[in-house]
Amino acid sequence: MIPQAVDYKRAGSVSEAISLLAENPDAKILAGGHSLIPAMKLRLNSPSLLIDIARIPELRYIEVRDGGVAIGAASTHHDIISNADIQSRYGAMIEAGELIGDTQVRNVGTLGGSIAHADPSADWPAALIALNASIKVEGPNGAREIPATEFFLGFFYTALEEGEIVTEVVLPAPAAGSRSVYRKFMQPASRFAIVGCAASVTIDGGTITDATVAFTGVSADGAFLDEAVGAALVGKAASLETIEAAANAAAEGAELNEDHYASKTYRKHLAKVYAKRALAGACGL
């Protein structure tokens, strides 16, 4: 299907993009376009104006800050997975990024666009939650920073307010002895997650001192932090037996997704399986 007619403007700065949004309330931000354009073709979204922010220099960078890494929202998936600073610190980001779409999608699609779209089966949200990332946004009322755990609020629904755009993602410095991974059972055609699990684990002297587990694809409400699984690991030996016991509680109480790819029962089973795989990887087992 062909989209309805739409105007197009390329913003030269973040402030210009915010002004254009304020002047055109039904406009949409265009970065990589891999989520927005298909929605427009299906007439699920028919903005009067597309505001292109993909070439704003202040939105495309990756830099080390205080041992962590700041990523500009217009950085592509390829920018992220090919960056040495991210490769050396955040395994979950590399593994999640490498599993997104195909080469074309990874070369053009952006981190900011993906998380602002908040597809409940997208890969980045789980990785960002597990890594305790924060998301910086800017709008007509100024800038603010939102923890990833508070950014993803539901089905294609985020904490972004009217007129705001994502400008940056901040990954905190990883703790000594920590490791993160991402594991996914994917739909083979779209490569979206039927179940995806990101895990970050800190080990000291063979004991798990901190653990964060997040899922995507599991819940109809989108990515979420599984606090019960993480809590069940802390203070325990980093062993397969510990992981097995903790993973059995995966997705308890979640509003499970159900579609023609997987029933609720199957997704619950996969959540346990992929929690075990992610945690085993994060523990180096």
TrEMBL record:
Q: Does the keyword Thylakoid apply?
A: no
Q: Which GO terms describe its molecular function?
A: anaerobic carbon-monoxide dehydrogenase activity; FAD binding
Q: What is its EC number?
A: 1.2.7.4
Stated name of the protein: Carbon-monoxide dehydrogenase medium subunit
Q: Which SUPFAM superfamilies match?
A: CO dehydrogenase flavoprotein C-terminal domain-like, FAD-binding/transporter-associated domain-like
Alphabetic keyword roster: FAD, Flavoprotein, Oxidoreductase
What is the top-level taxon of the source organism? Answer: Bacteria
Q: Which residues are in the FAD-binding PCMH-type domain?
A: 1-176
